[in-house]
Amino acid sequence: MLSAVGFTAVYVVGVLTRPGQVLENRALDASTFRASPGGLLSLVSTPNIAIALALLVLLGVLLRRFRPTGRAVGVVLVSTVLSQLLKNGLLARPDFVGDVSENTLPSGHTVAYASVLFALLIVLPPRVRTVAALAVSVALGVVVVQLLAFGWHRTSDVVAGLLLVTGVMALAHLVLPDRGTPPVRSNSGTRALTVLGALVGGVLIVASLAFAATLALDTSLATTHALLLASQIMCLAAVSLAVMTVLWVQRSVPAGIEARRAPLAHSGA
Q1: Peptide bond into 47 cis (omega under 30)
Q2: Which domain covers residue 89, as residue numbers?
Q3: How many CB atoms lie within 10 A of CB 226?
Q4: Which of 1, 39, 56, 182 stands the most exposed, by the fewest C-beta atoms within 10 Å?
């Protein structure tokens, strides 16, 4: 799975190499640490996640979208448990630069927000999903920018959290796909929003790569604030790609389901 490969690459480069730790810590030096920043970051807690799950289930029942609701709940629960197992037990952070060696990858706040917001996109019907994805992108973008700006997490922590939730979401779609759902035709508005999202993600990716190349060619520009800004742009690009992946996966049909639909289509012709 691409998400697993990406997660491993982020962990290896950002945590298991000295250059990766040095760069991320330099970006972290530009942050302004706040123990209680308020806003979206202060909402992450076990009771609030439980409330969010209850609201998702209620919404799914009201919309009579039972299989997507089951899939959404699974995404939140599995992502949350897996992130804690990885961060607190399975993954280690070597002390290459003399800082705190406690592992912080993946970011629990990123996983909490991404899993709940992606679960909302799963539960919502296709006709409103693309519009909702814009709001999800904005909210998640604010969260990841604040996580870096307030010094709560490094870039690799945030990107790994997004990759983890995206991978769990894709796996859930394979294990518990929708059945008997006809293909959804996109109207012009939906297509325009999808194209806009893809363009924004593409621009952010190009910007982050160009920024990184500039800093690599001229190390005098690689100040802590420049590295922090580059890290935030990179995380915003990761948010855009993750949300686009959620939309694409929800519109796709697993091969086994497609094979079962084919005879029905021919018989009705």
Answers
A1: no
A2: 2-178+185-261
A3: 16
A4: 182
Q: What is residue 190's predicted lDDT score, i.e. its pLDDT?
A: 52
Which of 245, 229, 222 lies closest to 170, judged by CA? 245
One-letter amino acid identity for 247? L
96 burial via Cβ count (<10 Å: 0-12, 13-18, 19+):
middle
Tens of pLDDT along 248-268? 888 765 544 444 444 444 444
Which residue matches tokens 């970006």?
Answer: 27
How many domains are contained in the chain?
1
> Is 157 within the bounds of a domain?
yes
Amino acid identity of 67? R
Cα 78 to Cα 251: distance, rounded to the nearest angstrom? 22
Instruction: Kindly report the pTM of this predicted structure.
Output: 0.85
Q: Would you say 15 and 94 are in contact if contact means Cβ atoms under 8 Å apart?
A: yes
pLDDT at 215: 56
Alpha-carbon distance of 249 to 173, in angstroms, equals: 7
Q: Is residue 267 part of a domain?
A: no
CA 245 to chain centre: 9
59-74 confidence digits (pLDDT tens): 999 999 999 999 999 9
